[in-house]
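Report of the visiting student (M.T.), summer placement. My assignment was to run the structure pipeline on a short list of targets and document each run. The first record concerns Protein AF-9 homolog.
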Amino acid sequence: MASDRVRVRGVSIFRPIIYGNTATALTQKERDALPSPDHTHRWTVAVRSAASGGNADQVGGADDLSYFIKRVTFKLHDTYPNPSRNVDKPPFEVTETGWGEFDIHIRITFVPESGEKAVVVYHHLKLHAWTASGEPEIPPIDVAIKAGPVHSWQYDEIVFHDPYQNFLNILTNHPVTHLPKAKRKPVPFHLANPGSLDASKGGVPEFTSLMEKEEADRLEEARQAIIVEQERWRTVLIERERELENLQKQLAATPQ
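After the run finished, the structure tokens were exported:
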């Protein structure tokens, strides 16, 4: 119906998601069985609902997101075969093996009813646990296996402003599983998990100085790209204004 394609003004509705990865160190036997025995970890990168379900070993994923997400495209490092991986049904994730960390480009495409453009987020694949120094530190394989999986997740909220009526109906017909209410203030990761840390180093911070620098570099790169794009469009606008001025002069000089 035509009324379904009318935007509901003044309404905003959001869906909480997480995106990130889990990585597990491989045993020597598992590495020997791989086509690339130099790979040290098996990892899974995913886009999930924020709340966790019945699987205690999985972060997030309580809700099926396919009612509003049509496709998630994970752009891996170019050294992987078919680095652009399209996932068109849940779970929206890709599992691979490897030895190095790199940035993953994640493009989330919404269902046609939404009328919304795709959104893009970035995640730095993390294979190794946090370090106190903030510098990369790769532990021996036996230590990494004993430490268990490494988790790196980012919480976000996808907000839809002035949604189409039919898309709003879809969203409201799929209520969100809410995160449990915290009865106390959040605690830093290294304080909440003291058993997995080296006390002699004073604990392991959840965010390191290296991560902070990498994020600052990415923000600066994005800022410079915006400046270049603004300058390009300013040049285009000046050229168009000159063309318009010339046409107006030609029009004024044309005999009536």
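The chain has two domains: 2-205, 208-256. Confidence is low (pLDDT under 50) at residues 195-206. I thank the supervising group for their guidance throughout the placement.
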